[in-house]
Amino acid sequence: SSRPRVFSGIQPTADSFHFGNYLGALQHWIRLQDDHDAFYCVVDMHAITVDYDPAALRERTYRSVAQLLALGLDPQRASVFVQSHVPEHAELAWVLNCITGLGEAQRMTQFKDKAARGGLNQASVGLLTYPMLMASDILLYQTQGVPVGEDQRQHLELTRDLAQRFNGRFGETFTVPEPIIIADTAKIVDLQDPTIKMSKSASSPKGIVDVLDDPKSAAKKIRSAVTDSEAEVRFDREEKPGVSNLLTIYSALTGRKVDEIAGQYAGQGYGAFKVDLSEIVADFVGPLRAATMELLDDRAELDRILGEGAARAREVSQATLDAAYDRVGF
Length: 330
Ligand code: ADP
Ligand code: NA
Prior knowledge:
- This protein is mainly α.
- 53% of the residues lie in helices and 7% in strands.
- It is built from twelve helices and five strands.
- A three-stranded parallel β-sheet has the order 1-2-3. The chain has a two-stranded parallel sheet with strand order 4-5.
- Strand 1 (5-10), helix 1 (19-32) and strand 2 form a beta-alpha-beta unit.
- The longest helix has 30 residues, at 299-328.
- The mean pLDDT is 96.
- The structure holds adenosine-5'-diphosphate (ADP) and sodium ion (NA).
């Protein structure tokens, strides 16, 4: 294929993706599948680096895949698969571990943050080697572009360093991937506390809209979102983070420009704006939830789709791993 290769992964760590995941990542995956050769992976191996429940992980992996398909990923156009189904990910990660400095890995801010939370003695070695598994995910596919948010920028930098280091030491093997930086404007904030980002770990139930929320409760969360006392629909991320967040969601779900939407509600306060958006959100999550549940009712079909995705992934990943193994002397 002459289309540029892109790779991205998402962890199956919740029962539902939320609007931050969708607007900050998944909608871009879907956009890119049209004119890119896309490999999209549910990274279950990354999800076991912290405490977890095996039965919940298995269910969340299926739910993640079903949501991706319901949101619009087309397994005919994009290769959609589960990380643990493609053993090359773990195999190349070992090689990359062996060319990464211990200090280099310990300097990753995400490791420092997560390890700091539970204390270093509680952290798994998997948490430390997570970025090398992520590098393996990306490099196995000779990836040219990786859609990433700000939070993964440092890990992608490490991936580029490792690709260059390996190529320099053992001979040209890996494509050095470029970030496809997703604009910070796609950052969705908490509906009840617009000073923090919407996140499964930090948000309260009322502050987070899940793509699998039932339409009524999603609409209610939008109507009761925290805004400000100015009562003017206007985009200003600094001064009006709550309203700007709602405008971002409105714009993303309708394809209309933020300024145009703000213009429509000029001089009207927040009432009509919130009611209209609550209906737009309800109309978005309703069919999504139904489509996801329908997909989840047919596990055999999901297994078939994932089997095809893994087979397509292995065609590429085996060739890359063979070359890498040969270069390192295996
Ligand atoms: P969470 O922060 O809820 O734990 P993850 O860290 O699993 O979510 O993020 C998965 C993807 O969704 C990443 O690409 C991340 O950049 C994106 N993402 C997560 N939260 C937001 C948000 N509030 N706004 C925009 N993108 C987000
Ligand atoms: Na996060």
